[in-house]
Task: structure prediction
Amino acid sequence: MNNPLNLILRTAIFLCLMLSLTVSAQTDEETLKTIYKTSLTNGKSYEWLDYLSNTIGGRLSGSTNAELAVQYTKAELEKLGLDKVWLQPVMVPKWVRGEKEMAYFETSGALNKVNICALGGSIATPNGGVKAPVLEVGSYKDLEKLGEEKIKGKIVFINRALQADLIHTFEAYGGCSVERYRGAAEAAKYGALGTIVRSLSSRQDDYPHTGSMGYGDLPVEQRIPSAAISTNDAVKLSEALKKDKNLEFFFEMSCQQFDDVESYNVIGQITGSEFPDEYIVVGGHLDSWDLGDGAHDDGAGVVQSMDVLRLLKESGVKPKRSIRVVLFMNEENGLRGGRKYAEVANEKNEKHVFALESDSGGFTPRGFSFDCSDLMLSKIQAWKPLFKPYLIHFFEEGYSGADIRPLKNDDIVLAGLRPDSQRYFDHHHAANDTFEHVNKRELELGAATMTSLVFLMDKYGTQTITNEKKLKD
Result:
């Protein structure tokens, strides 16, 4: 028989639990409202980005500007009254572009100047440049079919455009980036004198887009120079080749690779009140390419990540776990900072439970992609109604970020902020990646969105993962 007293007690407990959940939901809603309001009315991210972009400028790994950025962001984090701020040494590559690149092609005796830029890591052309006939291909994979007889002594022009019908522009970029990275190494095997790669941009313009390239294990004496050509000039060159397959292309570059130099990850921490030995990381990469000022890639992610810790403090949130902002060095041409942070964390046996990266530009936030278990993702997706008032709807499984990826293990949840990306590759790695192309409100919405997710992950933890592992065991 059911004891009436037990029934009343169970009912009371149930009502208390329901009330508790309701209060908790209201509290979360109000906390997010405070975070967004504080960011939009009293944000710091835009001010910080202004200084990084317009006072310091492009922050190529190993450069003086990169060192200035380290010192500036460290000083700004110290002003926030965090529990700890420190620099983590890391050796990084030092590549210098040198003098502005020059290029042209000849048609019927006329010189047609084109816009190019050296790809990061490329060797220079010989003194006086390189001039040779051009061979156009759609992909470096076409080279094997053509063979040495058709390639030797020529400049290979890899003319592969981003796939325009892909809504997710990062998917389009990922499909083409291999041409930029591997093109020169593959062409060199068949005796090419250099490579010209169509810029990885989603629009037609005159800006060449740089980016990292590599030679793999190719001997130094066999390496050839590689440059990006603007999308407009790629079209012009391709059209000219249809009329004259024997036209010659000239380009000259003076870039140089030096020995590695010491730089730093910049780290700030709020120590957790209940679980100080559990760490949540939020970050972006402090280095950028040198053509613009790196406002979108990744100045935006840096200042948003810095503002996460400030917004938590300003909103009265006292984290249970230790929250770290990590400004990674050398994401663009080596990923040394991300690997060093993970290496030190492993050496110290630190328990990282969540890491969030912003490295997709400062455009309007749409949500997050998550690298975690299905069970954990379902828990996170239950928070979507809290973000609905801010038009944040994208909570999907997917890639998180390059700098936090080395932290991956069975216990950590990785996530990446996903802004609207339709205009991102208009600016990516180009001279027009500058401060005036970042919208203040969009940037501050991103900072608030990141802070809100960090708040929820800290409050509720990743207990679902632990439970799931126990069930499997």
About this structure: The longest helix spans residues 4-42.
